[in-house]
Each structure stands twice: as structure tokens, then as C-alpha cells.
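Inverse folding, one chain.
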């Protein structure tokens, strides 16, 4: 949480995941992945995140988007697949 006084979509999802069972967590992750995989290629790219952020009226900070990709992109392809996002319940670096 960035303590800016507002809850953005990513912060909301993080809170939901923390308070959910494993089954609920997987369901939430699948739904979030489907939203952010805008072109439905099975991967979340920086462009997918930019497009969805623009559509939802979210702040579009390309540095933050790039950082989010790097935090979860364990195979170094510059994109996030579902396994990287799910991370077996752990954050993937």
C-alpha cells in the first residue's frame, strides 16, 4: 500500500488475496489475469497493462508498470504468464 489516501485496483486485489482461501485466491487471480491479458494471448505485457489502466481511468505510470512486469517475470521474456502471476502462493522474482 502506498499510503496516498486512495485504494487503486492493484491494492484492492492485494487485500482481497490476503483475506482469501486458496480456492478463492486462484479464482481472483484467474479473473484478474483475464482482465489484464487484454489481447488474450495468455501473457500480460506492458502494453496490456497500459491499455487496461487507460480504459479503467487508473494512473498510468510506465515506470510502475515496468517494475510490476520485472517483479513477476521469472523467465525474462518481458511478459507475465499465469504461473508467474500466481507464483505458487509466493511472489516470484
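Residues assigned per position:
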Amino acid at each position: 500500500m502506498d499510503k496516498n489516501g486512495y485504494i487503486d485496483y492493484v491494492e484492492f486485489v492485494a487485500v482481497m488475496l490476503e483475506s482469501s482461501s486458496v480456492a478463492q485466491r486462484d479464482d481472483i487471480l484467474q479473473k484478474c489475469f483475464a482482465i489484464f491479458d487484454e489481447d488474450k494471448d495468455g501473457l500480460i505485457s506492458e502494453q496490456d497493462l497500459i491499455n487496461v489502466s487507460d480504459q479503467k481511468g487508473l494512473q498510468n505510470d510506465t515506470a510502475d508498470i515496468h517494475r510490476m512486469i520485472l517483479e513477476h517475470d521469472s523467465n525474462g521474456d518481458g511478459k507475465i504468464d499465469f504461473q508467474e502471476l500466481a507464483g505458487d502462493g509466493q511472489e516470484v522474482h
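The radius of gyration is 13 Å. The longest helix spans residues 22-36.
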